[in-house]
Amino acid sequence: MEEIDENPGAVGGRRVKLIIALLHQIFNGFGNLLMNGASLNRSGGLKVLAASVAVTSVLGNSYAYSVYVAPLASLWGSTFWASLPFSILIATFAFSSIIGGRLYARKGNIRVPALLSMVLTGGGLLLSSLVEVVSTPLWLATTYGVVVGLGNGMGYVPIVALARKWYPDKAGFATGVVILGYGGSALAFAPLKALLIELMGVGLTFAAVGLISFTIGVPAAMVVRDPPQELVNYFSRFAKKRAVIPKRDYKPGEALKTPDFWLLWASFMLTAGPGLMLIGHMANLAALNNIPSPPLAVSIFSVMNALGRPPAGWVSDKLGRFGRPLTMTAFFTAQGLVFYALSTPLASIPWLFFFMVAALGFFYGSGLALFPAATGDFFGLKHLSENYSLIFIGWGLSGLLFPSLGSYIVDSTGGYELALIISSILSVAGGLVNLYLKKRLALYLQ
């Protein structure tokens, strides 16, 4: 009897369901940890946190853009033009986060930037679905790069700031849970997009993801809300005993005038840049090292990028007043050592290569959980969304500079060794900056 191959669509569908179920179980576990030891009535906090994860998951589908590159390159005959919309999205995301943070601070209502974010994201994806009709790269660069990028910028920083407001006593961990949605979203969206492209083409896939974004994102944005004044008042008493509390709340203009703002900004850029370079070049790096199944390296990095965020925040919370800079110093120094190891012949051993990629994914994700909390430690919670949006520009600039630097070095030398050594040095430098910031933090705390 002739053996019949299993329907690839059914296989892809089961993978999507398994990934969603896994993320659901992970979130339930994190929710239990957040409730452990709670000594106040935080009614509705977990509901808001779950809705926040849904919002960041919609935004995070942007991380799965790479599945569009091959069909778009086939359509336009250029990998450069096919990749350009994602680069524009990163830049737009970083710089428009200032607008999102300021909008939240001015309106005082999280639902305003959250809803605007979901409308821009879903609308931009629906407009992007015309890519095969308006067959010019500039259309996608505008609809996806600018419009969806604005959606990311409007929502990401306010939602991250909201997590810390609801859980000031578990700031690092709560922030990590929320942005797990952003990092982990690609795990579900990447296979879903690949399946949809296979079934109905790239244009209709943009439309389908846009409709999914509206369906998930708009209701979630209607659920998120700011904590009640009772909780804010409790924090003012609770923090004096157990949590990190700054002496005062710094307005953005005041924070910009402090040297520590720029040290924190520089540390973010130095430590996130190498990770962003690796994201853009990982499959090629694996191939040059003769590693079997290069896409597996991308998947491993994505998983650890997502899962590394809550544990890093939890560790920093447990270490007390100076937990954030201590954790960042340790993690980023270790990141530098792994980058150096990746530049050596050890990287040609498959299991070691995958282990190093997993470690780098963890460290990259941990930074995205720790920097928002650290910004609040230094400059207070009242203007956190605005202050962190300015810090976040360091991430955006590193996303523009480091992948291009990696490409230039590879084109010039024929390999990644120099790029990885530079990444190692910069990571350690960023870690040591935080060691200095540990001493400086005492000046900002009560």
TrEMBL record:
Gene3D superfamilies: MFS general substrate transporter like domains
Gene Ontology MF terms: transmembrane transporter activity
Pfam families attached to this UniProt entry: MFS_1
Record-annotated Major facilitator superfamily (MFS) profile domain positions: 205-446
Transmembrane intervals: 48-68, 80-100, 112-131, 137-159, 171-190, 202-224, 261-283, 326-343, 349-375, 387-410, 416-437
Keywords attached to this entry: Membrane, Transmembrane, Transmembrane helix
UniProt xrefs under InterPro entries: MFS, MFS_dom, MFS_trans_sf, Proton-linked_MCT
Name the record gives this protein: OFA family MFS transporter
Native source species: Thermosphaera chiliense
Source species taxonomy: Archaea, Thermoproteota, Thermoprotei, Desulfurococcales, Desulfurococcaceae
